[in-house]
Amino acid sequence: MVQVDAPTTRDDTYRAHVIPRERLGIYWGFESEVMDISKLFSNYDYAILTGKEGTGIKDAMEHVRNALGRDRVLVIFGSPYHGVDEILRAEGMEWALRKYPFINFIPGQGVETVRTEEAVIAVLSILNLVRYLHGSLP
Question: N or C terminus: fewer CB in 10 A for the chain?
Fold first, then answer.
């Protein structure tokens, strides 16, 4: 974020400086990183796998409610070229497909691939709605 401090002696010029994200005190978007998927699961109590091959959200609501009752829930999205199921199979982690719900949060999407940034917004919106309807949010 850039903060404009004050005008200068010129009418068309201002002074500004960059404010580091951690000093803002407000939500300024999510962060992501690339890491070994096998290590990722160990930091969370539960996981929700997302993808168009998953069970439709309508039929997976009980899984969603159960997941949201946990302390730390990991939501995993695929990549533009490989779905979560393909990635897990390629990494020899088929067990995760049996252990955690694999959910299609955007049934009838009408496109080959939903962009990750769109999927994040859609999935988090649905999860927040479920939390709200079940009294977890004000």
Answer: C
In a domain, 9, yes or no: no
C-alpha dist (Å) from residue 73 to 7, 41, 124 = 47, 10, 12
Tell me the chain's radius of gyration from C-alpha atoms.
20
> Does 21 score more than 70 pLDDT?
yes
Mean pLDDT on 67-89: 91
The answer as to whether 74 is a domain residue is yes
Backbone angles phi, psi at 106, to 5 degrees: -130, 65
How far is C-alpha 19 from the chain's CA centre? 25
CA–CA distance from 17 to each of 2, 20, 29, 81 (Å)? 6, 10, 20, 39
pTM: 0.74
